[in-house]
């Protein structure tokens, strides 16, 4: 516990961070250690290259997009607070905690709406952002194709990619504007138990 | 008054009489159990160590352990599909009411799988880095190797608790006893041999004593070692070069062959051991001050190597302990001497416990205790064919060549060989693997559809 406290005291505004994200002190310390390990130049900020150094992330077909999710548009670095806030989305929703009306709603509530610049996200909007790279609020056919291409690369032909994209848009696009809006995206995921499948086990 | 005294004394005597047989019984029991204990120790462990035979007890132990680990892994993994296909199907299954066989096509939710993998690796990839995929999935009932230990089931926790009791209550004292016996015998016997006149008899006896004591130490760690290609074992006048993961490497190699050790003289117990070892046969110990003098070191090594009656030198060129997944830069000093180099690759099986010694994290005693309280140390040793420096090759190139051979054999990643280039290639192939798996899942079913 001693080392936990000493690490916690190094982080500015840590109380606020814990309240906002719902992480325990132990989690914060762990994330801080990880942040420091990634921040090789000890600048106190992470750049895209620092994420790129993680081997397993580089192997991930959508690794670059995930890295992009950490950086707000126009921002080139991410500090510890933003790092923690974004990771907070992946915490399993805490069903046991009683709802305290005076406390601000923690970041991973599924009802929070999409806001640009992305500081308050829900899991669905994180996923939406992975598809919607130009951030116009819609997943166009071209963007969908790009994602498919990253995930499948040279294993399928262009025609197969296009047919997959066509079918997907056909199923999800309700207002027939040849793009998938956030609402349509959310609807298509209605029955998926995202919380169970997306939340990271060891963040519990 | 005398009556009372008599009364008192009889009472006391009565009490006394009550305790006596009990006391005796206790002593007898203790005596018997100690004797039994030591006899077992002697018969099953020390005597085979002396003669270099094995009852196969450790192999049996290893097999049993593996079965238990498998069972433990099943308990953790139940309900947790780990392959890409299964994971994605799970995600879809929770959302879709449609019949899965026809719906194995791209879904928007598939991205969740990759997203989660990505975020998990951002959070922590230290754990996964040291082990290959199959090894991670098995838990060897040591909390120190499972960073994500949570209470998963009562049975598992009970098993773990039982494991703790066995390891600390039974195995650890046994091993510590053996370790003391082994080291003690080494010191005493080598000192005795030191009094003999130099000659074949002395060499023979010293070899036997060294081997015997190292074998006892091997049993003290419950090390289960498989030696491969023993025909390539180092010969006199050569230099044996091996990758270094832990101080135990020395014991592992020296229990199968006789080597001349090289090192700095330490103080304390280590120093005592070193001094007595050198009485029986010539090892190369340097004073602290001499270690800095590279020419002196090189001279002593080459003198030793030229004398064909002396044992092959054992050197770990890396200098510090590496975590057994990679072979770092080999220091070129030992490769400048110009004799035959016998490379040896040592690879520890991480399923049974992590043998890596992080000297900044633990001290030596702490480390040895950790080793002695884990289940076993399982490793493989490969004796590689001898190599010599070729024409036009300098020491550094020779060193790298040897390093590459060791890394290839042990399945270790050869770092700093191609520099960044090799690492780049590694990443792309893995990414392709993921893509292949995913596309097989999608496109495979597309083809089925078009056929029907």
Automatic annotation (TrEMBL), chain A:
Primary residence: membrane
Pfam family, one: EF-hand_7
Keywords: Calcium, Cell membrane, Cytoplasm, Lipoprotein, Membrane, Metal-binding, Myristate, Nucleus, Phosphoprotein, Protein transport, Repeat, Transport
GO MF term list: calcium ion binding
One BP annotation, GO: protein transport
Gene Ontology CC terms: cytoplasm; nucleus; plasma membrane
SUPFAM superfamilies attached to this UniProt entry: EF-hand (SSF47473)
Domain named EF-hand: residues: 127-154, 160-195
Subcellular location(s) per record: Cell membrane; Cytoplasm; Nucleus
Keyword Zinc set for record: no
Family: Belongs to the calcineurin regulatory subunit family. CHP subfamily.
Protein name, UniProt field: Calcineurin-like EF-hand protein 2
Organism annotation: Oncorhynchus mykiss
The gene coding this protein: chp2
Automatic annotation (TrEMBL), chain B:
GO cellular component assignments: endoplasmic reticulum; membrane
Record keywords, A-Z: Acyltransferase, Lipid biosynthesis, Lipid metabolism, Membrane, Phospholipid biosynthesis, Phospholipid metabolism, Transferase, Transmembrane, Transmembrane helix
Keyword Lipid biosynthesis: yes
Primary localisation category: membrane
Pfam family, one: Acyltransferase
Transmembrane region(s): 28-57, 152-170, 176-196
Metabolic or biological pathway, per its Swiss-Prot or TrEMBL entry: Phospholipid metabolism; Lipid metabolism
Intracellular or extracellular location(s): Membrane
Family membership noted in the UniProt record: Belongs to the 1-acyl-sn-glycerol-3-phosphate acyltransferase family.
Cited PANTHER family: GLYCEROL-3-PHOSPHATE ACYLTRANSFERASE 4, PHOSPHOLIPID ACYLTRANSFERASE
Name the UniProt record assigns to this protein: Phospholipid/glycerol acyltransferase domain-containing protein
Native source species: Oncorhynchus mykiss (Rainbow trout)
Organismal lineage: Eukaryota, Metazoa, Chordata, Craniata, Vertebrata
